[in-house]
Structure formats: C-alpha cells, structure tokens
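Project outcomes to date are best conveyed with an example. Our students and postdoctoral researchers have been running inverse folding experiments weekly, and each run begins with a structure described purely in tokens. The record below, which covers 88 residues, was selected by the lab manager from last quarter's runs and is presented without edits.
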C-alpha cells in the first residue's frame, strides 16, 4: 500500500530487485485494465499520478518482465493499493 500525500512515508510505489538487470519492463493497470503507468527504468517510482492527474484510491495491477544479467527471464504479476485521504 502506498499513500501519495507528501508526508514522506510510503508516498511512492516501487519494486525493489537486488541483482543486476539487463531488461526491466513494467506496466501498471487500473481496475478496468487500462494502462496507467509504464517504465523500463529498474529504479522507477510511481507517484500515483496518471498523465499528471492524481489517480483515485484503489487496487492497481502490475506486470513486470525482467531479464537478469545472467540471462534468466521471468515475469511477475501483482497488485498495489493506492490510498488517498478521503478515499479519492
């Protein structure tokens, strides 16, 4: 869960991977399956905005495709919960 309210705690969503990566491809979707964020940067941080506007509270789904420096490829799917004050 992350709470992008500017208090300095849990303001950003990130996936931490320890090890060298050759390929990192992340897509985050809203509950309707619409793409809201993408990144090829392994050090990405999503601030809970979509095209500069605040995304509403809710559960978001992600798919990340990774290839390690040793050549191992895998895909991980998961969810993250965005929580805003007042539920917006």
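After processing, the design step wrote out the following sequence:
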């Amino acid at each position: 869960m992350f709470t992008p309210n500017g208090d300095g705690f849990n303001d950003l969503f990130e996936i931490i991977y320890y090890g060298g990566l050759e390929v990192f491809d992340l897509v985050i979707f809203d509950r309707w399956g619409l793409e809201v964020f993408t990144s090829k940067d392994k050090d990405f941080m999503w601030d809970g905005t979509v095209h500069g506007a605040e995304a509403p509270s809710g559960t978001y789904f992600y798919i990340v495709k990774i290839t390690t420096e040793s050549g191992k490829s895998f895909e991980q799917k998961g969810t993250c919960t965005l929580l805003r004050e007042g539920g917006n």
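The longest strand covers residues 58-68. The chain has a mean pLDDT of 94. The training component of this project remains on track.
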